[in-house]
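Example (one chain per record):
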Amino acid sequence: APLGGTYYKPTGNIYLAGVSNISISHGAVRFYLFNASTHRWENRTDIINYTDSLLNITDVSVVINESNMDLYAVYLRGRPTDITYAVYKKSTDGGLTWSGESKRLVNATGDDYRSIRTNFMHNETLYTNWVNEDPNENIYGSPINSTVQLGKFFEDEQMIDSNLFASEEQSSASPAIVFINSTVGYVFYISHIGDEPRYRKTTDGGRTW
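Predicted structure:
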């Protein structure tokens, strides 16, 4: 099952999310805490547990705001062979409760999205990227404000690269993303050109790569 986790350095705690079963429509997104003080795993509140027969959860990623310990879980939901959407939820109490679901991250009809990843650009903004497998293995991304908003969508996605190697995307952490400040970030991935590791860089907050 897809897993996503994050580490909070001041306490040593680890936060982990996992999709219970991507092949069924009622698979939950579970959430756990590894308590560094007690050295034990603790169950926290499920991020989501759909019962709608048309909705599956196919991937999840978690990130923490180290300035205030707010947690964000970005995930893909929908019909895996038809339409999937990127959305997120927020927790301000370590995963005991979660906000309502955000509006969609993309102003577009969903597609075969896979491998969602996220990382903070700075204190108020995250950057999330994913792969669209149909018709090509393209990497897309979008900045999102850390305030959950309801509605239809945030903004248009940005093409990052069209050279992802699909088989590597399925079996490894490709693509992976990191921002070093509010404008400079990197996406690392396995290219279909020579099946080799490559990266792209942005200096304007993900507007261009």
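Caption: DSSP finds one helix and 17 strands in the chain.
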